[in-house]
Design brief:
This protein is of the alpha+beta class. 43% of the residues lie in helices and 14% in strands. It is elongated, with a radius of gyration of 27 Å. It binds heme C (HEC).
Length: 129
């Protein structure tokens, strides 16, 4: 009986070693992602997750508001004049508000402007000053 238990333990250890060895060799053959692969994955995430909904300014067309494709992911347009808002309806467990273009969000925590997600190097230089 003891011998049988010993053989079972050895077989279990051997199986685990074999299992992890196979797992490692599969990882080793995984394809390394290129810069283009990473960009494609990023585009897929952005387009399937609705990032444009808030981070791209909108323009009014015959069919309603559409994405301003000249400013994809540029965030809230800094000099856009905001309409007035009655803030008395806003509060905890009551209401929050957004502009029709979804780039500005107002609630008890204040006003949040959708950020510019593009590599705006000119903007970064200005921000550091
Ligand atoms: C419902 C609207 C909304 C959606 C949808 C949304 N965001 Fe945002 N995002 C915002 C707002 C508003 C801010 C600014 C928050 C603040 O200032 O605190 C922000 C901030 C960010 C920031 C921070 C930028 C910085 O300057 O630090 C990143 C990065 C970001 N969003 C990425 C994304 C990505 C990626 C997606 C899609 C997966 C996404 N967001 C979807 C509204 C949104």
């Amino acid at each position: 009986m003891r011998r049988l238990f010993f053989i079972a333990v050895i077989a279990a250890i051997f199986s685990m070693v074999l299992f992890f060895q196979l797992g490692c060799s599969e990882e080793g053959t995984a394809k390394t992602k290129t810069q283009e692969d990473m960009i494609d994955i990023g585009k897929y995430i952005v387009h399937t997750s609705g990032c444009d909904n808030c981070h791209t300014p909108k323009i009014f067309s015959e069919t309603g508001f559409v994405l301003d494709t000249t400013r994809l992911l540029a965030g809230h347009v800094q000099n856009e004049v905001l309409p007035s808002l009655d803030v008395t309806a806003l509060g905890q467990n009551t209401w929050a508000a957004t502009t029709i273009g979804l780039t500005v969000w107002v609630s008890p925590w204040g006003i949040s402007y959708a950020s510019n997600l593009t590599p705006d190097n000119a903007g970064k230089v200005l921000a550091k000053k």
